[in-house]
């Protein structure tokens, strides 16, 4: 990316944030007949812009290639479903969302969230680029436009569906967008004059503090602080008027935005307080970002030290989950079947496939009970409590859980 420019401010990028070597696309799971075929690896090298401090990856594959047929279905994480149901209840009350309101979600996946508004009798529309995932939502009765989002799609929705949004939702999609300005400009177009936008994204400060390098993968083009998101939104005429700090995905932000000219929604003190905290923590200075790569190396060494010691002692290790973040961790650390025999996943869409790069097989969770591994490495560490509750029976044979991030912890 040495000759590349920042996707927001245009500054030439030259400073490394995290160099994770070479990695395949993290959601490019393999069928058994593909294991002997050529597999494409790309540089997984995140840079920080010295101009606006946006952390970003280069675009090696277009979103159309990555997301048109997608392996992630949101409805298989019980913790996430509880989170979005609580969100639906909260915003319905706070912003008086009712049967005459219009709720639109960008990157609506399999209808995991919009189903809760539909249950309340609120009109909903999903916008989802992955046809295989959108099909599930449509079967649930969630109307869904199969489109990538930006200004052209916003205009198409306004024209063809004759609607704008009272509540426009974008959960964990902003990072997936290479053309940030087009995406945010599209949100402004689709939002009613008095409407509200809520956007959730993993928080860069938590990524740095807790060594969450595995949340860096090719499908995530950008990594955000409140400071950078505020600048990006302001450039397109949107004002962030409130922010919540969330525990999801290892620490996320939910920002609330309105049209810049909508003076009825005052900017809450939480926004300025969090911006001040970012300054205090060093997010406004380049030095903090440039130190992160050393933290990443240290975390890798600790993970490998544990695995090598366990294997030398004759212990068996299995994985739980096949998330994108897990594929970053496994490929960066060089963890293959010599360390981890297999992983399991609740999603039937992943069972029977193999992890990209490492070729670790993905099994049904019952495989754990059959093989009784000594250690269960939880790859979706952000769901560790849910996983440990589901798999608590490994204690019967003395099995232990391993949490790899922020550093190796055996429970």
UniProtKB/TrEMBL annotation:
Signal peptide: none annotated. Keywords: Methyltransferase, Transferase. One of its GO terms (biological process) is methylation. The keyword Transferase applies. Transmembrane segments: none annotated. PANTHER family: BLL5978 PROTEIN (PTHR43861:SF5), TRANS-ACONITATE 2-METHYLTRANSFERASE-RELATED (PTHR43861). This is Methyltransferase domain-containing protein.
